[in-house]
Amino acid sequence: MSRRITSDEERREFERNFAERRPIRAALTAKPAPRLSKGTGPSGVNGGTLDRLRRGLLEPEARIDLHGMTEAAAHPALNAFVAAAHARGLRLVLVVTGKGNPRKDDGAAWMMSPHGVLKQMVPRWLNQPGPAALIAHVQSAHVRHGGGGALYVYLRKAR
């Protein structure tokens, strides 16, 4: 690869800028990326708490078992439970939804109705404006608390 030859104009500009002791090109000023406060996760729950939740080290203070309920009965029960837990000042509650039936027997009678409905619907219900205002974080529970058939709901501090 051959070396590029500078023109006379480029050389004069370089010598003029060098004599003035200023950069040839203005330094790019990029805005730094916004940072979360130290140890804070994307949901506002600190990293230590998220880690303890992930490892199942925090014990839920209350639990509701929606497993076996109909969708019509489970929704108001969940909303009432979350509101009552928040009012009592609880921080971590467990919502058991069940996993749904994993079998794939398409001809079975129980396949005529949807299965695993609560597992799909509970996260949606928790994201609705009423309960969402009370909740800081939701994630799948650790195996010792129900695994994929349960959710940890970490509530905001009561004011």
Write up this protein:
The structure is a single chain. The chain has 159 residues and is of the alpha+beta class. The chain has a domain at 47-155: Ribosomal Protein S8, Chain: A, domain 1, CATH 3.30.1370.110. Helices cover 33% and strands 13% of the residues. It has 5 helices and 4 strands, in the order H-H-E-H-E-H-H-E-E. The longest helix is centred in the middle third of the chain and has 17 residues, at 71-87. The relative contact order is 0.16.
Structure summary, number of beta strands: 4
Strand adjacency order, main sheet: 1-2-4-3
Average pLDDT score: 81
Task: Give the strand content.
Answer: 5-15%
> Compute the gyration radius: what is it?
28 Å
SS-derived structural category: alpha+beta
pLDDT < 50 stretches: 33-41
Tell me the series of helices and strands, N- to C-terminal: HHEHEHHEE
CATH class annotation of the domain at 47-155: Alpha Beta
Please count the helical segments.
5
Query: How far apart are the first and last residues' alpha carbons, in Å?
Result: 69 Å
In CATH, the topology of the domain at 47-155 is named: Ribosomal Protein S8, Chain: A, domain 1
CATH architecture of the domain at 47-155, please?
Answer: 2-Layer Sandwich
Tell me, what's the shape? elongated
How would you characterize the largest beta sheet? 4 strands, mixed
* Percent in helix: 25-40%
Topology:
Layout: H1 8-20, H2 47-54, E1 62-65, H3 71-87, E2 92-96, H4 117-126, H5 129-132, E3 135-140, E4 150-155
Parallel strand pairs: 1-2
Antiparallel strand pairs: 2-4, 3-4
